[in-house]
Amino acid sequence: MFTRPRIIPVLLIDDRDCIKTVQFGERTYLGDVVNAVKIFNRKGIDELAILDIGATKNHREPDFELLKDIASEAFMPLSCGGGVTTIEQVHRLLAIGYEKVVINTGLIKNQEMVRESVRLYGSQSIVASIDAKIVDGDYKCVICDGQEVINKHPRDLAIEAEEMGCGEIIINSIDRDGMMRGYDLKLVKMIADAVKVPVTAIGGAGGIKDLRQVIQEAGAHAAAGGSMFVFYGKLRAVLITAPSEKELTEAGVYHE
């Protein structure tokens, strides 16, 4: 039984810039990613995810120098993804301080690498990330930072990822990305019902009530988000923030 859900801010980087997207398109520059990590340190968050959204589509490997700088500053558990195509890269990321390596495009294009990474480093270290959007009335998987739609249902890919040995699944709604209007509860529940491993929801979080809803109603084990942790107010002023443990307890996300 998962007694305490994890709340996970997600920081996106592209060419070393920390950014936030809307539906994988329009982007806002947020500043220095290492500085954002330092602020999250003081907020006492459960976990932090760093995703390089430009690496795969630009055929770049992970920026190990930047990722090492981030890991050296972070006090919380870290996961990272983007551009991971080899077992050697998985090894390097784990060696510089990341607890989990997030794999997205590789779930489709390099399943043997995923299986071998699980065998070498354990299922707890390998996270499957599935980006989904509604195409012609049904969900489809999308890879390469939203560039390529795959004729595969996200539920089917989630089951495959579990069979590959991935210890956790992130389900991300592209349609909800950056909108701050709530998670796609139908999508999250579909994935959570299909697999036995923990499921992390991302895409659409606008406030604490959304975190509570996706955990309690859709069965997510963790609620991740971008915009609600980096923007403030209707004008979306840049402000790195996170709800306190007291606020999450009072809202019913955490139970005493």
From TrEMBL:
Pfam families on file: His_biosynth (PF00977)
Gene Ontology molecular function, alphabetical: imidazoleglycerol-phosphate synthase activity; lyase activity
Catalytic reaction(s) noted: 5-[(5-phospho-1-deoxy-D-ribulos-1-ylimino)methylamino]-1-(5-phospho-beta-D-ribosyl)imidazole-4-carboxamide + L-glutamine = D-erythro-1-(imidazol-4-yl)glycerol 3-phosphate + 5-amino-1-(5-phospho-beta-D-ribosyl)imidazole-4-carboxamide + L-glutamate + H(+)
Record InterPro entries: Aldolase_TIM (IPR013785), His_biosynth (IPR006062), HisF (IPR004651), IGPS_HisA/HisF (IPR050064), RibuloseP-bd_barrel (IPR011060)
Top enzyme class: lyase
Protein's UniProt keywords contain Transcription: no
The entry's keywords: Amino-acid biosynthesis, Histidine biosynthesis, Lyase
Keyword Cytoplasm: no
EC numbers: 4.3.2.10
Domain of life: Bacteria
GO BP annotations listed: L-histidine biosynthetic process
Pathway: Amino-acid biosynthesis; L-histidine biosynthesis; L-histidine from 5-phospho-alpha-D-ribose 1-diphosphate: step 5/9
SUBUNIT field: Heterodimer of HisH and HisF.
Entry's family note: Belongs to the HisA/HisF family.
NCBIfam families: AglZ_HisF2_fam (NF038364)
Protein role: IGPS catalyzes the conversion of PRFAR and glutamine to IGP, AICAR and glutamate. The HisF subunit catalyzes the cyclization activity that produces IGP and AICAR from PRFAR using the ammonia provided by the HisH subunit.
Name of the protein described by the UniProt record: imidazole glycerol-phosphate synthase
Species the sequence originates in: Xylanibacter ruminicola (Prevotella ruminicola)
